[in-house]
Design goal:
Radius of gyration: 17 Å
Order of helices and strands: EHEHEHEEHEEHEHHEHH
Number of domains: 1
Helix content: 25-40%
CATH superfamily: Spore Coat Polysaccharide Biosynthesis Protein SpsA, Chain A
Number of helices: 9
Shape: globular
Largest sheet: 9 strands, mixed
Distance between the termini: 39 Å
CATH architecture: Alpha-Beta Complex
Length: 248
Amino acid sequence: MKFSIITATYNSAATVGDTLRSIRDQDYPNIEHIIVDGQSKDDTLAIVAQFPHVAKQVSEKDNGIYDAMNKGISLATGDVIGILNSDDVYFDEKVINEVMAVFANNKVEAVFGDLQYVKQDNLNKVTRYWKAGMFSRAKFYFGWMPPHPSFFVRSEVYKRIGGFNLSLRSSADYEFMLRALMIHKIPVSYLPKVLVKMRVGGMSNITLQHRISANKEDWQAWKLNGIKPHFFTIPFKPIRKIFQFIRR
């Protein structure tokens, strides 16, 4: 099977080299890497040009990171799609091979694993370990979600249920996973190991105010899918996320 990886970039020169190397060094033999750039003004594209494994590249104005991801999905020709941000890396060179081994079961439509938050300037300095744990629908009602960078989906799922909802600025990934797992109930498998290292300071976590805004969008994601949250969902999820932010 072919594995497509989508990386959205914008002025990512400081970190994209690490991302590219982590994909280049994967030992899985059939990878399609797609770069969707938002017309970077720095050396991002010059760095990308140094990596011949990149199969497709587009650089044009977009409507934010989720619009870029949707463009990448439309360009992907792989059986399975993963999204790796331009400041994240795969944990080791075996990640894609291990993920695809799970997809050898034709009934599995999504795979997810664990994630490490690491320092901006040191990929080996772990600040928090996001252990996803096994999926159950009940967990969503108590603030659970898989780490999106370690969430891999068959391409046919995107064709069937759609991509990222651009009305959400920072929680479109959460809404997609909610829609896939809660509404469409796609068969999913948990791979109990760290798959991705994520630098701290992502769009929805960069400030406390951003985290609060992201939680408001999380509630909107429930409404968009016609799901009524559990009584404890509303107070629990924002409190949990805010305390995670403070602990960092």
